[in-house]
Specification:
The complex is a heterodimer of chains A (about 160) and B (about 1000). Chain A is α+β, with helices and mostly antiparallel strands. Chain A has helices at about 25-40, 75-95, 100-105, 105-115, 125-140; strands at about 5-10, 15-20, 50, 55-60, 65-70, 115-120, 120. The relative contact order of chain A is 0.14. In chain B, helix 7 (about 120-135) runs antiparallel to helix 8 (about 140-150), helix 14 (about 240-250) packs antiparallel against helix 15 (about 270-280) and helix 25 (about 455-465) runs parallel beside helix 27 (about 490-500). The chains are: A alpha+beta (about 160), B alpha+beta (about 1000). Chains A and B meet through strand 2, strand 3, helix 2, helix 3 and helix 4 of A and helix 1, helix 2, helix 4, helix 6 and helix 8 of B. Chain A: It is a peripheral membrane protein.
Chain lengths: ~160, ~1000
């Protein structure tokens, strides 16, 4: 996988993860182009499209689009399920996740992603194992009152 | 999904709840900027105020405690993620990641990962912190450090840690989670800096991670192994049997066996896909047992597709089908199991009608590759109606695009008319984004499968009518080339284009084609009073004022041709040329043409005019430049079907030799030497997998003479270069060498283009040209000089190209070719390649025209046995007149038409120019369909020079043979008999002593 973008229906970028080096300017350009392309597509259209020399796989969950760019030999369907597994992980961790969870707990969204995917490849596909790693890290948190990272306890 | 993303539209309702949960600071920042309808400017103002505040905190006298630092660094990240640029805070982040407190460390690493900075001082500090964490033996810290390396992946990090990480990966006491991170971290470093990651001693232990107990470790490690295998297949080949047995265990396991690695009742879908992907780096297993097991797995996967689903969830079917598609990719990659290929095709056929758009899309895509396999091509063709239907009815343009690709791939002689017609009718409504490509495809198919050329002409004119704006120059140039070369279609073309021009609004491209064709062949329809010369002229001229300057220029040329073809139009046309709007046109080109044509038509006699404006001679047959354009557009692999299908081509192209076609095509469309090679490079797979991974282009190029480096020095000059001067001399996974050469008299100049196909620079790059044996005594002089203003650049950057020029002077005849040696370092390993430069004696041929009587008189004079070299060889291919002619011309001689009384024979004449002597050669090629020719007695040679020359010519006529005959089909049908007679004229008698001139 070359990169993953999360953006809202309004086209606001919520999370970006680049697995191959890109200049900042290029990142912005790619993001702008891709967000436009994906938002212009109608709901029943297929989840894959050719874009530049990459394949883009995207799926919409409520107000948020999850969008991955993969290489020619990569598998589209399994990428679609990578997106779904990530959503499941977020959902399980936050307890019915919503866009604002990702906005305000962006660091958690990143940490979960790093446990699941590394270098653009699936590192650990077991939901249990990923969440266990995140929870262990949370236990190391010495100060739960840290002002900017309060979140609702998982139900 | 249970995922309940709440859209911002619901925000007002949940505001109160949120205030409790989220940080007050971030919340107000965010709410104010986004939801309270702040203008963009106000938002930026607000953010800038915040940034100024943070900056002052960081710069303040009071040292910040860890907590505050974390808070502000986190705020910076937040602001960055809102889409604003952040250019400070890195130092504070580095302080954080050196902290012992986990949350501070975590935020520090996150900031560095998201906002990568190449400041070297900073990287030194980061690397220090990472080093500490890696050696901490605390798995959580180690993972954080490894994640950071994997996220940044810079060269500095590779330098610092590429040695350490393999150790962590294979150490017995490393925790599973750390192993997983280490494997993927290493993968990232390898992709960025392959030269720094040396697996050597670890290879076997890394491969054995495929056997690891922990599924997560296997899942992570296999990505690394796949990448390494694709680059060094031999070193990692033991992974094949391990991968097969792992796959077999997963495929045969019950859906609950793998516990949390089962995903919606599908056992380990990610790992299965990765295993199947890894196997695609290799040919089918040689070991019968392993192969049997694998075929069993593939059959099981195909069988499972027919079973009723275990769940209605889309995740279940997606995961299951992901494995299925990967299995089909492997089956296509092997391309050796007809049974599996046909089953795969049937399965995809079912998907073509599936209600899921995604599956239809993928089935179309996958079938495209199946269409190029000889085993499944016919099976794919049975779905033509479904695919045509998809092209017409799919609502999603990307699916329609796939359908169009598949139609293109499944097209052959049997269905070409239907497919071209469907594509043409689709073009009328096609999306703008894909029109140009569709036009190219239609043009290629029409040309490739044209049996009757009137159909071809109709198709292209329709193309211009329907999608004129998208018809590139290549397309209309091509139709003109073909019409000029095929006299059976010229009358039809003139008639059709004349009719097409009747339309009140016709596309400018139609006017161009019309102007050209009527100018050349208008006479063929001038007998009909409805298309009399004057009617033709008036029709063309009625379009004149609506056209752009280049088209007008073309029309002016058509007018002067009219004056030559139809003297009765002279007065009218001269009147037009003389008008102010022409002769005083503000455009220099138009004005010049008007003035010159007017003058030409007034002062030149009919004979002179007829000579100047003689009908265009046939174009040399060559590969369609349209194909090159499509290749360029679609990138490597996209038109592989085209190349695969060698047997079918040649009808129109006159069978340009297949090996060099990309090269020739590229040079057709782009004249300058450097852009040539760029064109080539875009057609070549850049940094792609080894040929075994199915890249057909690689195969094709390898036939153009790129032998493996070790063998190259023994081989003679690649035969294909005997008759042509440009192409790819050598190509492997790292390097491509393109060549372009020109010769005049006894001098030559050769441009070599060294292209680095990797993303990594070549170090210590040197090239030397040497002349072995006799050449050393300056028989042939080769003086390399670099065109760069700088001396030889020892570094060739990744993806870059370096050009070198070699000047060559032929002193006297020679046999051996000079050697080119290339040395460079790639990833620490020294690469040493020796190639023969394709300099052969025939390059110095100067064609000589002569009449029949002259030829035979000379032929008889050269009757001494030592003046003759004969060669009889089998043609391995049906002989195409045009191909043979092109080859003989390529040899450098003049092809003498109407000289030999037997029209089957070809005769040529030329003089080899060397510095001290000239060698006149007469050549006669006698194809013998009966294949009864007995080999002549070996000629005996007394004279040294004659001997040498004979030898040279002999070996070259010999090497012409395979290229004469094309190198693919093995249909023996004819014999060829080549006789060459020659004489030597010595320019400098002192040097050659008593050599006689004949």
């Amino acid at each position: 996988m070359q990169f993953m973008l999360l953006f809202s229906r309004q086209g606001k970028l919520r999370l970006q993860k680049w697995y191959v080096p890109q200049a900042d300017k290029e990142k912005k350009k790619i993001t702008r182009e891709l967000v436009q392309t994906v938002l212009a597509r109608k709901p029943k259209m297929c989840s894959f499209l050719e874009w530049r020399d990459l394949k883009v796989v995207y799926k919409r969950y409520a107000s948020l689009y999850f969008c991955c760019a993969i290489e020619d030999q990569d598998n589209e369907l399994i990428t679609l399920e990578i997106i779904h597994r990530y959503v499941e992980l977020l959902d399980k961790y936050f307890g019915s996740v919503c866009e604002l969870d990702i906005i305000f707990n962006f660091e958690k969204a990143y940490f979960i992603l790093d446990e699941f995917l590394l270098g653009g490849e699936a590192q650990e596909t077991s939901k249990k194992n990923v969440l266990k790693a995140i929870e262990q890290a949370d236990l190391l948190q010495e100060n739960l009152d840290f002002q900017i990272r309060l979140f609702p306890a998982p139900s | 999904s249970r995922a309940g993303f709440t859209g911002p539209e619901n925000l007002s309702r949940v505001n109160l709840v949120l205030v409790k949960h989220y940080s007050q600071t971030l919340y107000t920042l965010y709410i104010r900027s986004v939801y309270h309808n702040l203008s963009k400017e106000a938002e930026i103002k607000r953010i800038n105020k915040e940034l100024a505040n943070i900056r002052s905190k960081f710069k303040g006298d009071k040292a910040l405690d860890g907590y505050s630092k974390k808070k502000y660094v986190c705020k910076l990240l937040f602001i960055f993620l809102l889409g604003h640029d952040i250019d400070f805070g890195h130092m504070e982040a580095v302080n954080l990641l050196s902290s012992n407190k986990y949350t501070e460390k975590q935020i520090g690493y996150l900031f560095i990962s998201v906002l990568v900075n190449s400041n070297s001082e900073l990287i030194r500090l980061i690397n220090n912190a990472i080093k500490n964490d890696l050696s901490s033996r605390n798995p959580t810290f180690m993972c954080l450090a490894l994640h950071c390396i994997a996220n940044v992946g810079s060269r500095e990090m590779a330098e610092a840690f590429a040695g350490e990480i393999p150790r962590i990966l294979v150490a017995g006491d490393t925790m599973d989670s750390v192993k997983q991170s280490a494997a993927l971290c290493l993968l990232r470093l390898y992709k960025a800096s392959p030269d720094l990651v040396l697996m050597g001693e670890w290879t076997s232990r890394v491969v054995h991670l495929l056997n690891d107990q922990h599924m997560g470790v296997v899942t992570a490690a296999i990505s690394l192994i796949t990448c390494l295998s694709s680059k060094n297949p031999d070193e990692f080949k033991t992974c094949v049997s391990l991968a097969v047995s792992r796959l077999s265990r997963i495929v045969s396991s019950a859906s609950t066996d793998l516990q949390d690695y089962t995903y919606y009742f599908v056992p380990a879908p990610w790992l299965s896909c990765k295993l199947l992907r890894l196997l695609q780096c290799y040919p089918p297993p040689e070991d019968g047992a392993v192969k049997g097991r694998l075929v069993e797995c593939l059959e099981t996967i195909l069988n499972k597709a027919q079973e009723p689903p275990k769940s209605k969830k889309v995740q279940h079917s997606n995961a299951k089908n992901a494995i299925l598609f990967e299995a089909i990719s492997l089956i296509i990659h092997y391309d050796s199991e007809p049974n599996l290929l046909v089953r795969a095709c049937n399965q995809l056929g079912q998907f073509l009608q599936h209600r899921e758009t995604n599956l239809r899309y993928l089935a179309l895509e996958s079938m495209c590759t199946l269409a190029s396999s000889e085993f499944s091509h016919e099976a794919v063709k049975t779905h033509i109606e479904t695919v045509i239907n998809a092209l017409k009815t799919e609502r999603d343009v990307s699916v329609r695009q796939r359908a169009a690709d598949l139609l293109y791939a499944m097209c052959d002689r049997s269905n070409a008319k239907q497919i071209v017609a469907e594509m043409l009718s689709y073009l009328e409504t096609a999306d703008y984004s894909i029109r140009e490509e569709m036009v190219l495809k239609v043009a290629i198919l029409a040309e490739k499968y044209a049996v009757d050329y009137s159909w071809y002409v109709d198709t292209i004119l329709n193309l211009i009518r329907i999608a004129g704006d998208y018809v590139s120059e290549e397309v209309w140039y091509r139709v003109i080339q073909i019409v000029i070369n095929r006299d059976d279609v010229q009358g039809y073309a003139a008639k059709t284009v004349f009719e097409a021009l009747q339309a009140p609004a016709c596309h400018e491209n139609m006017v161009k084609v019309g102007g050209y064709i009527l100018g050349e062949f208008g006479n063929l329809i001038a007998g009909d009073p409805r298309s009399s010369p004057l009617v033709q002229f008036n029709l063309l001229h009625s379009k004149f004022h609506l056209c752009s300057v280049p088209t007008r220029a073309l029309l002016l040329s058509a007018y002067i041709k009219f004056i030559n073809l139809f003297p009765e139009t002279k007065a009218t046309i001269q009147e037009v040329l003389r008008s102010d709007s022409q002769i005083r046109n503000s455009d220099v080109e138009l004005q010049q043409r008007a003035v010159e044509y007017l003058k030409l038509s007034s002062i030149a006699s009919t004979d002179v005019l007829a000579t100047v404006l003689e009908e265009m001679p046939p174009f040399p047959e060559r590969e369609s430049s349209i194909l090159a354009k499509l290749k360029k557009k679609k990138g490597p692999g996209a038109v592989s079907v085209e190349l695969e299908d060698g047997k079918e081509r040649g009808e129109l192209n006159g069978g340009a030799d297949r090996g060099g076609e990309a090269a020739i095509a590229a040079s057709n469309s782009t004249p300058s030497p450097s852009s040539d090679l760029l064109g080539l490079r875009s057609a070549a797979p850049v940094g792609g997998p080894a040929p075994s991974a199915g890249s057909l282009l690689v195969d094709v190029f390898s036939e153009a003479g790129s032998a493996p480096p070790s063998a190259a020095s023994e081989d003679p000059a690649p035969p294909l270069f005997v008759c042509k001067n440009n192409g790819v001399l050598f190509e492997n996974q790292l390097l491509q060498i393109g060549i372009k050469s020109e010769y005049r008299q006894n001098l030559g100049r050769m441009y070599l283009f060294y292209g680095n196909k990797t993303s990594v620079q070549f170090v210590s790059f040197t090239t030397t040209v040497s002349c072995p044996g006799e050449l050393q005594s300056h028989i042939l002089k080769c003086i390399p000089s670099l065109t760069h203003t700088k001396p030889v650049e020892p570094l060739v950057e990744g993806g870059a190209q370096v050009q070198q020029v070699i000047n060559i002077e032929c002193l006297t005849d020679f046999v051996d070719a000079p050697l080119l040696n290339i040395k460079f370092r790639y990833g620490g390993a020294l690469q040493n390649i020796t190639l023969k430069l394709p300099v052969t004696i025939n390059k110095f041929f100067q064609p000589t025209e002569m009449a029949a009587a002259d030829f035979f008189q000379r032929w008889k004079q050269l009757s001494q046995p030592q003046q003759e070299a004969q060669k009889i060889f089998k043609a391995s291919h049906g002989m195409d007149t045009e191909v043979l002619k092109a080859k003989l011309l390529g040899l450098g001689t003049a092809l003498l038409e109407n000289v030999d009384p037997n029209p089957e024979n070809y005769v040529c004449a030329g003089v080899i120019q060397t510095k001290i002597q000239q060698v006149g050669c007469l050549l006669r090629l006698e194809p013998n369909a009966q294949a009864q020719v007995a080999p002549p007695p070996p000629p005996t040679h007394t004279h040294t020079h004659t001997h040498l020359c004979a030898h040279a010519l002999d070996s070259h006529t010999a090497s012409v043979c395979p290229s004469l005959c094309g190198s693919h089909c093995i249909t023996h049908c004819t014999h060829l008999h080549v006789i060459t007679r020659y004489c030597i004229y010595v320019k400098d008698p002192h040097r050659v002593g008593s050599s006689k001139s004949h």
